[in-house]
Amino acid sequence: EVRIILEWEPAQLPRYQDPKEAARIMREAGAIPLEPYKSSQAKWKCKCKTCKAIIYPTFAPIKNKGVKPCRSCAAEAAGAKRRAKAEKANVSILKKANFLPLEPFPGSHKPWRVKCTKCKRESQPHLSSVKNGSACGYCAGIKLDEKDVRKIYKDSGFEPIGIYPGSTKRLWKALHKKCGVVSSPTFDSVR
User: Fold this and answer.
1) pTM over cut 0.70
2) What residues form DSSP beta bridges with 127?
3) What is the pLDDT of residues 106-154, one digit of tens each?
4) How many CA atoms are closer than 13 Å to the CA of 171, on its beta-carbon side?
């Protein structure tokens, strides 16, 4: 006489899932069931509460792993989380270079409007240049605004005439205080 003994682990036995409880879990996860619950591995027709799309998630990963039922909303949430983490790191880089951001991070290939914590002036450096060690152009004496240029002209004995041309490369009419001659000296000669 041959006896077959079957040994099953409790984990191997399929567990009963109450359909009402499954629907409640699915709604809490962010999807509205549009058809009755079948099984934990079957695709379940639902509607995403966030984007209103018709989706077909399986129940098991939602219940066991906390996976979001809508793939596109889950990807959007993961992207937002990643971007927030990157923005926090980028703001930290700016603060180490003595800058305060005046707007959200615009992207890696665009200038970022910032304010220097030392001279309190606004500028728009690229994040990559700040990462490479660039500091405030005004503090370094590389960038000049109209107030700086006027002061340099006056300290050199010139009284600027008219409005600032917007660049130290352009000639600016000025009156030489000693001799009274009106000329257009180059910025480098005045400096």
Assistant:
1) no
2) none
3) 887 889 999 999 999 999 999 888 888 888 888 887 787 788 888 888 8
4) 8
